[in-house]
Amino acid sequence: MVLDDLGSSLRGTLDRLQGKTRLDEEDVEEVVREIQRSLIQADVEIDLVMELSDEIERRALEEEPPGGTTARDFVLRIVYEEMVDLVGDSTELPLESQTILLAGLQGSGKTTTAAKMAWWFSKKGLRPAIIQTDTFRPGAYDQAEEMASRAEVSFYGDPDNDDPVEIAREGLAATEEADVHIVDTAGRHALEEGLIDEIEAIDATVDPDRRLLVMDAAIGQGAKDQAQRFEEAIGVDGVVITKLDGTAKGGGALTAVNETDSSIAFLGTGETVQDVERFEPNGFISRLLGMGDLKQLAERVERAMETGDEEEDWDPEDIMSGQFTLKDMRHQMNAMNKMGPLDQVLDMIPGLGGGIKDQLPDDAMDVTQDRMRSFEVVMDSMTEKELENPRSVGANQVRRVARGSGQPEERVQELLEQHRMMERTLKQFQGMGDADMQRMMKRMEGEGGGGMGGMGGMGGGGGPF
Ligand SMILES: Nc1nc2c(ncn2[C@@H]2O[C@H](COP(=O)(O)OP(=O)(O)OP(=O)(O)O)[C@@H](O)[C@H]2O)c(=O)[nH]1
User: Fold this and answer.
1) Which residues does the record give as GTP binding sites (predicted)?
2) Is the pLDDT assigned to residue 68 strictly greater than 80?
3) Residue 131 vs residues 93, 170, 181, 240: alpha-carbon distances, Å
4) Is 76 known as a binding-site position?
5) Which of 63, 124, 211, 332 is deepest in the core (most CB within 10 A)?
6) 188: Cβ below 6 Å to ligand 1?
């Protein structure tokens, strides 16, 4: 899909930040370089690339990662927010009577998009009509009529009339029973004066509620000039990016959005009238970065910032007294991102510290780090409710979380099983008084300190991770 390169190379760079809770300039420069490289490859205009990457760099160096947030999540949230800010929300398209004018170069996909949008509006219960004013390209009328019948919507054109403005006027009158009028216009190979004059005349006649610039995803560096000219001529309220089902990157359309201070309305993903998607920034950017549901992650980091340093608020004794949630597990995993984490956590829990840490096998942490990384990615795609109450997670949620995180369902199940095991172990400790706790620790140490007893070792399987 769009900007796929950004997803894979950026993911690699961000994963290298996995164990860090603080960012140095070198880390940030590496992430920014990756973003610049990928956006340029995706045909985003260079000035826009520099503007975006400067802001990411500034924020990553100036802003404090909130407690309990890894450097990777912190940078990811910044990249996500800046990308969403760049593409903006989808163009407002109220489900009510309106007239929409489509403009764009020859072959950009206007006629196809007119039929796709008409089909989309008809599925929303509205009565759309397409008005075909292209008198320039032979065959335009027949193609438009054919596509309108495939979309099963009203159509108006006049193959015997060579005045597009008159066709537009007559078309509005002839389809007055429709509530959404989509006016398709002629394209040209380039931004000729004739094209601009014609589109200005049609615009003045139909006085549309919305003007959408239709752009082929492959447009590349030419997007800026094209967007500027149509913006000057009629003003652009939104962009439709077509042919995203091909290899094209679509970055040029991001330039057009920036240049016209507009937004993206639809994505064209094939030649049939059903191959159309309403633009949605969260899904678009999350898919783009290949990082599961980033909106969840961004909101979680946001909450960590609002509630202060969660790490300071979190008292490991909490897990001995109440419900043990996946958030507690995440805290422990974040603590593990620092130095010798479980040791610290154990030291924080009365009676659980002492000689146990010397019993942990050396490679335990390494095995745990790998599994922790994938557990983190899984948790990034879980809702607050699921994190608070993992026992409520059923088969459907497991499927959704696996899809959103890009992890196998088995990994999601493994996380839930590890949580249940850890919770069971902790319940054994909860009923104990300090004296009992001490006696238990002596017994465990007496048995060669077999790891954490019910908490298991740190190796694969059987342990809390
Ligand atoms: N694969 C793919 N092809 C598309 C898409 N949108 C349009 N096309 C194809 O691109 C070609 C041009 O589409 P049109 O809708 O005729 O483009 P136009 O802007 O109306 O062209 P003019 O009428 O000459 O100005 C056609 O072969 C369409 O089938 C898309 O999203 N994906």
Assistant:
1) 104-111, 184-188, 242-245
2) no
3) 19, 9, 7, 18
4) no
5) 211
6) no
